[in-house]
Amino acid sequence: MNLFQAGILGAIEGLTEFLPVSSTGHLILAAHAMGLVGDVMNDFEIVIQAGALLAVLWLYRARVAEVLGGIARPRSRGGSLLMKLAIAFLPAAVVGLAFHKAIQAHLFGPLPVAIALLVGGVVMVCFERWRRARRGTPAFESVDAIPLSVAFAIGLFQCASLWPGVSRAMVTILGGLLLGCSAVAAAEFSFLLALPTLGAATLFDFVKSRDALLSGASVGLEATAVGLAVAAIVAVIAIRSFLRYLTRHGLEPFGWYRIILGLVLFALLWHHAWGFR
């Protein structure tokens, strides 16, 4: 992997991790286009996911400090948020551990990603049009107002994101909106839920590949540094921009993007473009 490829993949991760378009799906497609498959790409995904997590830690450092303080003070605001994140994290953790090998063996390819992008896009467009027609007042305006039952339900929605191309951000934000959260509350809860979810996944993969990563034998130390830095910087910009965009335009534009991309991928697969199988 050269530095240009590392930068491109880092930018893709940073841009798409917290948008409802599927970072995993985009990375799979970009890696196939660049001819980067196997252990090298698997190891590099660990690096750039860590970069995206650093962006959330920086932007929400005050909330993260509150949550950490909640360990000692479970009845505080931070303790309440810690409990919500923990209970929302559990469903995907259990399902992911149980089916990790099967998911990687059967779903990490262009065709499953194309299906997920297309279906997810249709769902988002239909949901946004239903939500606009309903014009209801959100029951939960902030993350702090979300009850434990709703947090757990959002965690159940998150299980769908184990299918590459579905998008963790899409299902958690859409789930939050469906369950009565405001757009900002749903998005911010999704961002914060990324910390335990992606953190655990990154740590799990790091333990398996730590020797290659620490030595730079698989990716290279320079490519690692570039990918990490680019992913973190782009993710900060993406999160800040997305919150403003979501409150003004909703999820429908992202749904149409997914539909168009999914259809393009089906056309490319039909003609065996880039050697996809």
TrEMBL record:
Is Transmembrane set as a keyword in this record? yes
Enzyme Commission code: 3.6.1.27
Q: Which InterPro entries match?
A: UppP
Does the keyword Transmembrane helix belong to this entry?
yes
Q: How does it sit in the membrane?
A: Multi-pass membrane protein
Transmembrane residues, as ranges? 44-60, 81-99, 105-127, 139-163, 169-198, 219-243, 255-274
Give any Gene Ontology cellular component. Answer: plasma membrane
GO MF term (any one) = undecaprenyl-diphosphatase activity
Q: What is its main location?
A: membrane
Q: Name one Pfam family in it.
A: BacA
Chemical reaction(s) catalysed: di-trans,octa-cis-undecaprenyl diphosphate + H2O = di-trans,octa-cis-undecaprenyl phosphate + phosphate + H(+)
* Highest taxon of source: Bacteria
Q: Which GO terms describe its biological process?
A: cell wall organization; peptidoglycan biosynthetic process; regulation of cell shape; response to antibiotic
Q: Where in the cell is it found?
A: Cell membrane
Alphabetized, the UniProt keywords read:
Antibiotic resistance, Cell membrane, Cell shape, Cell wall biogenesis/degradation, Hydrolase, Membrane, Peptidoglycan synthesis, Transmembrane, Transmembrane helix
Record's family?
Answer: Belongs to the UppP family.
**Which NCBIfam families does the record associate with it?**
PRK00281.1-2, PRK00281.1-4, undec_PP_bacA
Q: What's this chain's function? A: Catalyzes the dephosphorylation of undecaprenyl diphosphate (UPP). Confers resistance to bacitracin.
Q: What else is known?
A: Bacitracin is thought to be involved in the inhibition of peptidoglycan synthesis by sequestering undecaprenyl diphosphate, thereby reducing the pool of lipid carrier available.
Q: What is the name attached to this protein's record?
A: Undecaprenyl-diphosphatase
